[in-house]
């Protein structure tokens, strides 16, 4: 199972620079359109799974509030084991 990923939200293909976003299973992250709960906590990332959608490889990130985030599997660094 994938424990963490590093991906680029907006790839800057002209300069070749990467502004990496990190997502680690078990940590809380703000999501677009999702409000924090009554304790003020954002949803926790529960699982990262590889999938294929319309013949395109994607990653599905599932959060504790039932929401999912789907990102294309291009230029994503996958971390299987955390030290």
In short:
This protein has one domain.
H/E order of the elements?
A: EEEEEE
Number of helices: 0
Helix content: under 10%
Average pLDDT, to the nearest integer? 87
Q: Strand share of the residues? A: 35-45%
Which oligomeric state applies?
A: single chain
Give the topology, please.
Layout (H helix, E strand, L loop, with lengths): L3 E5 L11 E5 L20 E9 L2 E8 L4 E5 L4 E3 L4
Antiparallel strand pairs: 1-2, 1-6, 3-4, 4-5
List keywords for this structure.
83 residues, mainly beta, 3-stranded antiparallel sheet, globular
Description:
The chain is globular, with a radius of gyration of 14 Å. It contains no helices and 6 strands. Strands 2-1-6 form a 3-stranded antiparallel β-sheet, with no helix packed on it. The chain has a 3-stranded antiparallel β-sheet with strand order 3-4-5, with no helix packed on it. It has one domain (4-79). It is mainly β and 83 residues long.
């Amino acid at each position: 199972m994938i424990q963490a990923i590093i991906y680029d939200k907006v790839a800057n293909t002209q300069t070749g620079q990467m502004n990496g976003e990190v997502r680690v299973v078990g940590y809380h992250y703000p999501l677009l359109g999702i409000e924090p709960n009554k304790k003020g906590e954002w949803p926790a990332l529960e699982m990262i799974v590889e999938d294929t959608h319309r013949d395109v490889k994607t990653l599905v990130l599932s959060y504790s509030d039932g929401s999912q985030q789907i990102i294309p599997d291009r230029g994503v660094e996958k971390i299987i084991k955390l030290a």
